[in-house]
Amino acid sequence: MKNLWLLYEEKDLRVNRDYVAAMRRAGKELDLAVKAVTTEKLSLCMNEYGMPHLLLDGKAAHPDAVLSRMRIPLYSRHIEAMGIPVFNGSLVCDICNDKRYTYQFLKGLPMPKTTFLAGNTFAPSHYPQVVKPACSHGGDRVTLVKDPFEYQQAVDGILPEAGLVQDVAQNRGWDLRVYVLFGKIVAGVMRHSKDGGIVSNFKKGGDVTLHSLTRDEESLANEVIRRFDQAGAPLCFAGIDFLYDTDGPIIGEVEDVVGSRMLYQTSDIDIVSLYLKEIKNRI
After folding, report:
1. What is the DSSP string of 3-66?
2. What is the rounded CA–CA span in Å between residue 271 and residue 283?
3. Which of 49, 97, 145, 233 would suit a FRET pair with 240, their CA atoms being 20 to 30 Å apart?
4. pTM tops 0.70, yes or no
5. Judging by beta carbons within 10 Å of its beta carbon (0-12, 13-18, 19+), is residue 141 exposed, middle or buried?
6. Contact, 275 vs 32, CB < 8 A?
7. How many CA atoms lie within 13 A of 140 on its CB side?
8. Region label for 194, one of left (φ > 0), alpha (ψ between -120 and 50) or beta (otherwise)
């Protein structure tokens, strides 16, 4: 039986126990032992010969594969250096968990007009605008601002972290999550904010429906997938999020640690089992 780690930060594991349980059940059917492990219990070590190794609760550990559900590339790089496969890999983790890096990586593709914030020196020329942290997820501190006062309040709530300020997409409050498994589109789920705001996350009460991708949506999603493949950073299990402007879909972000509640809510696709079957074929 192969031993797989679901690697979390402790704060995220506490709110994802159901996902871990689903992974364990699906893994058992595939003769895969899935264990939740947190970064706080790991020690990353180098021996006197410059070789990396791991300690879990102070004891040497060497899983057969790691399914990364955390956002710290250092851990993924260390585990990869030991010859252990990590899904998604460290480069995906690096690119996707800083929106500034994501936009740079996907240059040339349609996306919101964006300014990277590193302090208080930038002031928008028009409103409304969207202000958000560069490295947050789940709608954390994503704020629609309508005037300079609201803008400054939002920026003050982010600094000294890095942030972004963006033009508002024309069809605000709507976005599409495209689920990807090992470079293939699995399904799309359309999300809509209930209160007319800009945050449509399912956890924050957004409405969700299964969505058949249009030709433009599929083409843009496949171009994002191709970019990652060409960079040697395949999207093993990820979500590509689109916003909607006057000319159609634009890049919102790419989720490395993608949730699956919406897909189970809107379809009979068992993406956890599909994911683990693909993993089993690769280890």
Report:
1. EEEEEE-HHHHTT-HHHHHHHHHHHHHTTEEEEEEEGGGEEEEE-TTS-EEEEETTEEE--SEE
2. 19
3. 145
4. yes
5. middle
6. no
7. 10
8. alpha
Looking up tokens 């982010």, which residue turns up?
Answer: 158
The length of the chain is 283
Q: Mark residue 161 as left, alpha or beta (left: phi above 0; alpha: psi -120 to 50; beta: remaining).
A: beta
130: β partners: 144, 166
The three-class DSSP label of residue 251 is strand
DSSP letter (8 states) at residue 249: E
Q: Which helix (H) or strand (E) holds 273?
A: helix 271-280
Of 250, 256, 261, 162, the C-alpha closest to 203 is: 261
